[in-house]
Fold each of these.
Amino acid sequence: MRLEKRPERSNAMAIASPFIAFALTIVTAAIIFTLRGNNPFAALYVYFIEPLTALWSIEQTLVKASPLILIGAGLSVAYRANVWNIGAEGQLTAGAILAGSVPVLFPQWQSPLALLAMIILGVIGGMLWASIPAILRNRFNANEILTSLMLVYVVQLLLDYLVRGPWRDPQGFNFPKTVSFSGWQTLPYLTSGIHAGVVITVLIALALGLVMSRTLKGFEIAVTGQSPRAARFAGFSEKSTVMFCFLLAGGLAGLAGAFEISSVVGQLQPQISPGYGFAAIIVAFLGRLNPIGVIFAGLLLALSYIGGEAVQTALQIPDKITRVIQGILLFYILACDTLINYRIVTSSPVLQKA
Amino acid sequence: MKKFLMTVAAAAMMLGAAGAANAADVKACWVYVGPIGDYGWSYQHHQGLEAVKKELGDKVETAYAENVTEADSEKTFERFAREGCNIIFATSFGYMDPVLKVAAKFPDVKFEHATGYKTADNVTTYNAKFHEGRYVIGQIAAKMSKTGVAGYIVSFPIPEVVAGINSFMLGAQSVNPDFKVKIVWVNTWFDPAKEADAAKVLLSQGADITVQHTDSAAPLQQAEAAGALGFGQASDQIKFAPKAQLTAIVDNWAPYYVRRVNDVLNGTWKSQQSWDGMAEGTVSMAAYTNMPEDVAKMAAETAEAIKTGKLTPFGGKITKQDGSVVDAVDDGMILGMNWYVKGIDDQLPQ
């Protein structure tokens, strides 16, 4: 059995593939629920539909989707250019650290400018951290998959050091966390559950979608990814594309970090993200590497988190189900995408005698 | 498709009906930081949930969420509050600010936060005097160690942990004034691999007894593998180390949970700061094993003395590491402890 490249890929299937993948995920989830002895329809209802029936859980889903969309949109551009930034989780953390420096070092600074400074520093932090693998790839041809991933752990340890040491809340009994942020050091809330970052996220994703489809820069990125040789003939610099993609994805991840610590988390602590940077990789692929598609993919993945918790509390299904469903979803997307470009052939290749 | 939707709707109605059928008087909910299968901290809290179910039967409905990360816990508390929980137990320190935030939104829901220090009208804190048990195991360690050195694996330099180290040392010094303890900070509550590595290092550096203030049985298993001795933490871990476990400090949250849920049932729940110990049964010792009878007898007597109040681990004058003397250590000092007693060869991470 082997894979053979299809002469032509079907455009219809390319659009349908995430839906097929999602449907297969639902079927697999139903089988898993049944094997556990749960009523699969009840479990699927609690997982995927019930969270959308109440205002508060819709708000939670939107808030959860925000970092996923922000990071996923940046990653989708990078992946389009064949720039494999796997370290968005670290770039998020770096952004959170720089953004958090404002309320930690200047707790008295209460003005909209403080929030603005946090947001800008968040973007800069993510960009700085993302520029390291970009420089390493451009200068030394180092594999950016490895370097960007490794740097995640480095910056997480830096955060760990800061919140246990110099940035620890002096009134916090040695517990590893900074002071709680308040006032203009946190994002304004539009409703009781939705913070301003959610709106900014959607605007950024839409803008990126336009950049990719309507501008020369978008064309340059797409060409560099699909055909580096053609890109060189067109005079596009691969190195500057690599740097651009890393700075864009890193900056957006850093922005997500700044949003998280100034809203949901409200302080710096050893762990500030349940793995948004990694989950956003799924979001980017599920969204067809298109920033607009990423909006929907981010919402779906956010729903998988919220629903995973719902089945846990309502039906006592272990929390690992969230990871299982996310993993199955990514598996099916990649499988569907592979089968769009390739077909499975069972016979052995015909050898032609010379 | 239509048929599918109808089945889903029917399933939803069944769910709704099921919800109405066990209309209990009180819904009590627990949030755990680790897996309930950690056989340590979260496991013991879950045992408390089981005890509540058993004691209060149909009057109470329970629910729980496990592996809830601290960064992500606010929405879990909000979910429970919205799903009609009357009392929510938040069983990790890191839940403190999320609990207070959600509690402010739901003034009618009672919140109980383990090991924290911030309260509100509907937020109680509760903790246990684990350091009482540590005094007992300090004495056992000093009796049983051949090298006179214990290896101590610790999570975070918070007061509860520091008080535990001090109490262990005071217990050990009451038997052997020259007893030494080596300390490794692993900066995690639950990471079996990291805890095991720390135990290996300590055992290779001359310690022949391991103590841990982390949640897994891994250090004890390392002691077992190395032919050394050790103590269980939070739960009786004898099945992980039948030859190595001397005893274990067992957290028994059941009496507290039953009492508090009952308070909600009777409408007598009040915000408070609860700090129970051996006297109330929240802290108890597992069977004394793998030691001679005289040591077991001494340990049992010490535990009994603490239980009846004849002995307090921090009783009398205490000399600090820096040589200064504290005349009397009160509860407030223990709850905010950030200094070592004399004889500990380590610096608190600052």
Note: Residues 66-284 of chain A form one domain.
Amino acid sequence: MSAAAVPVPAVLDIAGTPGIPFGRLFGVELRKSVDTRAGRWLIGITIAAVLVAETIFLIVSAVKNLDSSYGDFVAGAAFVSSFLLPILGIMLVSSEWSQRTAMTTFTLEPRRMRVVMAKMLAGVAMTAFVIAFALVIGLLGNLLFAAIQGQSPAWTFGWTGFTGFLVTQTFAMVGGFALACLLLNTPAAIVVYVVYKYVLPGLIALGSLMTWFSHLAPWIDFQAAQNELYDMPLTSAQWWHLVVSGLIWLALPLLIGLWRIRRAEVK
Amino acid sequence: MIKVEGLTRAYGSFIAVDDITFECKPGTVTGFLGPNGAGKTTTMRVMVGLTPPTHGDVTIGGLHYKDIPNPGRHVGVLLDASAQHAGRTGREVLEIGARTMGLPGTRVDEMLDLVSLDARESTRRVRNYSLGMRQRLGIAHALLGEPTVLILDEPANGLDPAGIRWMRGLLQGYADQGGTVFLSSHLLHEVEQIADEMILIGNGRIVARGTRDELLRDATGGVSTTLVTALDNHQLAEALTDKGIVVHPAGEGLRVTAEPVDVGRVAAERQIVLTDLRAGHEGGLEDLFLELTAETQRDVLPNEVTANEVTASEATASEVRA
């Protein structure tokens, strides 16, 4: 039995411990996305897939004597990596729940929304990394192509398309992120994302055979609305389609998901 | 330091924690005892803000947990040693904690050292850890930020006997330096040797609380008993009965309704050689614990055995007849 020899005041001295700065949370979340085997696999597969796609594109371009330029090589690399960005967004959130690390995370930082924001920013940073990787690989591909063809490299680069690509890829990552917040479950979030990405467009196209639905469709088809971003500038109607469908598919799941995380009992 | 006031947590119509109030003081170890599902974990989860309370309030050092800046530096928490990413190495788990709290990387090595996880073990993934190793890792994580308050749910779970002793010493030392320790267990003997105060919970309600001695006094109804064995038990029994002390045979010796000192005095007066003399209420706490939490025990106890001095064989026989 220990007798309290020195009387200790029953209050916490919090003067010496400022709150955790956001930058630190961001750094930790970034680290957490790559320090597990699952995280490394995801990054590794992304890099490998980009390299494979780029090699194929290079071979086809050389054999068929295509008029490929830098922009084409970048687009090829980025198109492939974009499939994995939503998965990344999903894993950032849902792994905390499936592995139950949310208990530790939210005990060290009880202001849960800051953690979630740090995670989302980590997702954006990873998206930026993937796009930068695509730029570099595209550069290498283009140089190799020029060397094979024995001509000087073509540096044509569609900046409009690239901006559209940047935005849509970030949306894709955040879309996965939002679904994960909403469902807090990795398989469920991935399945719903796949349905959204690959099944829903077909359903919308089918529904659009009905006239009344074909008027409604642009307002709810987020993917179609995003495609317009590759052909800037947008008309005001196209902007509104993007905003409204984005509210439905991005903002709404995210808001409900954040509300859920905020209130959830973390087990 | 930890103040729980009128805490209730309900899940629909099920009340996991039912209006409990208690306090843990600095420099002490408080044991939180109860059978599985009594509400221990729920209470601890509310303490650290993982579960919102239905009613009532918990403060640590006068603050709600969510208002403590960088709480890992003040409150060390271990709720579930298995709740770690299976794909992370033990070292990485601590590294993440240390970075979040803004601690130097050397702290990770110190903690690994403290809980005796060697360099090779620390680079293995948590998936491959035994429960005992996870528990050590969890304790290391809880201690990372040099907190003044520790909240540990079943910290001895999965530790080997040496590990349990080690942890006991660790927590004791921690309290001696002014720390506040609150730990739960469903095993009485894990807690009774270290806890300055024990809180017994059953069915979400506090059923008893106090120091070991206070609880024991309650357990025996304020009547002390002594177990004594003499070279000549018969002679001792007579001597004690002469003094008006009640004596029953018990095992090799006698169970006497008196303090050990009185029994010893009688033996000395009559020059009776004693081979064993001790307070007769070990098992008393265990009985109290089982009795108080009987409603929430999952297993039906042959309660006659603990209450009376019925031998095991008789109890079995009566059960068979019944």
Note: The CA atoms of residues 65 and 121 of chain B lie 33 Å apart.
